[in-house]
């Protein structure tokens, strides 16, 4: 496990920096709590929403489960289980890659695109609402590093 050498840190202002870091962590946790609430209201979990985001960002061609696992920082088996839950919920489909019939891709179903679009819109609204606060926090931490 890597350690941070205290001699590498600039002196003083640790109390101020710790306050900024605490505010940053609280803001992130608040966003994650918001995300958990709205995804639960949509009838899916936060992990399912994260998967829908990754699949959506892969485009119409879809994504392999191994790429999805890497994106979600999950083990392949856990990813397969998640994809199967999403498939049973009607949110994704598994299709053969047209270019390589050996590969199976995960794509959003029509229902998955609707659910994903609604959740993305709600999340973007929340991000935009909190962006000035987040930028200020990040800037304060960035400014601290240069002083």
Write structural notes for this entry.
The longest helix is centred in the last third of the chain and has 37 residues, at 110-146. The chain has a 3-stranded antiparallel beta sheet. 67% of the residues lie in helices and 8% in strands. Helix 3 crosses helix 4. The protein has helices spanning 14-41, 46-58, 65-72, 76-88, 110-146, and strands spanning 63-64, 92-96, 104-108. The protein is mainly alpha-helical. The protein has a single domain, classed as Winged helix-like DNA-binding domain superfamily/Winged helix DNA-binding domain (Arc Repressor Mutant, subunit A), CATH 1.10.10.10. It is elongated, with a radius of gyration of 20 Å.
Give a quick summary of the entry.
This protein is mainly alpha-helical. It is built from five helices and three strands.
Q: Top keywords for this entry?
A:
single chain; 147 residues; mainly alpha; Arc Repressor Mutant, subunit A; 3-stranded antiparallel sheet; 5 helices; 8% strand
């Amino acid at each position: 496990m890597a350690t941070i050498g205290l001699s590498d840190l600039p002196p003083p202002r640790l109390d101020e920096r710790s306050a900024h870091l605490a505010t940053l962590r609280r803001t992130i946790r608040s966003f994650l709590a918001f995300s958990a609430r709205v995804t639960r209201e949509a009838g899916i979990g936060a992990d399912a929403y994260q998967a829908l985001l990754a699949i959506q960002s892969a485009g119409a061609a879809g994504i392999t489960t191994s790429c999805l696992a890497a994106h979600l920082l999950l083990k392949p088996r856990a990813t397969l289980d998640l994809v199967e839950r999403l498939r049973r919920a009607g949110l994704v489909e598994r299709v053969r890659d047209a270019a390589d019939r050996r590969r199976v891709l995960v794509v959003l179903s029509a229902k998955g695109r609707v659910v994903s679009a609604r959740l993305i819109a709600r999340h973007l609204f929340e991000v935009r609402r909190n962006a000035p606060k987040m930028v200020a926090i990040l800037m304060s931490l960035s400014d601290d590093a240069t002083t």
